[in-house]
Design a protein that fits this description.
Blueprint: E1 2-4, H1 14-18, E2 24-27, E3 30-33, H2 43-47, E4 53-55, H3 68-71, H4 75-84, H5 98-109, E5 121-125, H6 129-149, H7 156-174, E6 188-194, H8 197-213, E7 217-220, H9 222-228, H10 232-238, E8 245-253
Antiparallel strand pairs: 1-4, 2-3, 5-6, 6-8, 7-8
Helix pairs in contact: 5-8, 6-7, 6-9
Keywords: Iron, Iron-sulfur, Metal-binding, Oxidoreductase
Protein name: Nitroreductase
InterPro entries: 4Fe4S_Fe-S-bd, 4Fe4S_Fe_S_CS, Nitroreductase, Nitroreductase-like
Length: 273
């Protein structure tokens, strides 16, 4: 429930004007939150000049007061930071500290979600990474065999993937500790899951930014998400929540490579109306 401290409230009306759910009204010169259509977005907490609004559903100790020094990033620096990021597939043999893992997940947790549903979850795989790898390669091998035996599938790109997946599984059986074209010997995988692909994708984007800021590297593995589609064995192993799906798979570790510059891209396709 959202609450208003009437002793602190000065009736400025800022919370009411900013409430997207139209759940706040002024009564006798004080803010009154009806808690009928409220989606707990926290705008009223953020905008109140007197810190009169609080909630008993979340930890109010997490609320931080704005200061320019702590919260401002120069736009040009941020844009350059985004341009410089690279997908990393070459990792050092070094564990990722739990403190850094928690910061990566915090970046996802504080990402916006539609109607403040906050329906994104995270699965961190470290100790059982090799077990997961085996399950994923088994699934990919089966999908590859299906592609190659299905006469209705004529896409040559899919067939190239099919041959790759079958060979990856064969190589794993021959030497489980050998080459790794799935996780590239990274020490950590974070799966971002949700019933809503947009919410999970937005969270993943912010998580990638903080990953790079922490001196780590990452890339998004589409192979794992593909392998988990309809695969009860993988989903049970991961303890995937009901109605959730794996939206992204972040393979994370300390880079064993150093990039020296950004790279070019195609021009943006923009329609101005």
């Amino acid at each position: 429930m959202m609450n208003v401290n009437l002793e602190k409230c000065v009736g400025c009306g800022l919370c009411s004007k900013d409430c997207i759910a139209y759940d706040i009204e002024l009564v006798n010169g004080k803010a009154n939150i009806k808690n009928e259509t409220c989606i707990k977005c926290g705008h009223c907490i953020a905008i109140c000049p007197k810190e009169a609004v609080s909630t008993d559903e979340y930890d109010m100790n997490e609320v931080k007061k704005y200061t320019k020094e702590d919260f401002t990033i120069e736009a040009e620096n941020l844009l350059n930071f985004i341009k410089f990021r690279r997908s990393v597939r070459n990792f050092n043999n070094k564990d990722v500290e739990d403190e850094k893992i928690n910061k990566i997940i915090e970046a996802g947790r504080f990402t916006q979600t539609g109607i403040n549903s906050q329906n994104v979850s995270y699965i961190v795989v470290k100790d059982k990474l090799q077990e997961l790898r085996k399950l994923v390669l088994e699934s990919l091998k089966e999908k590859g065999e299906h592609i190659l035996t299905n006469q209705n599938i004529t896409d040559n790109r899919l067939k190239r993937y099919a041959y790759m997946w079958i060979k990856m599984y064969s190589d794993f059986l021959e030497n489980p500790n050998g080459s790794d074209r799935l996780f590239f010997k990274a020490p950590l995988v974070i799966l971002v899951t949700s019933p809503d692909s947009v919410n999970a994708s937005l969270a993943s984007s912010n998580m990638e930014l903080i990953t790079n800021a922490l001196g780590l590297g990452t890339y998004f593995s589409g192979f794992l998400a593909k392998a988990a589609e309809g695969n009860k064995k993988i989903n049970d192993f991961l303890g995937l929540e009901e109605n959730h799906k794996i939206v992204t798979c972040m393979v994370i570790g300390y880079p064993n490579i150093k990039y020296l510059r950004t790279v070019p891209r195609k021009k943006s396709s923009i329609t101005w109306l």
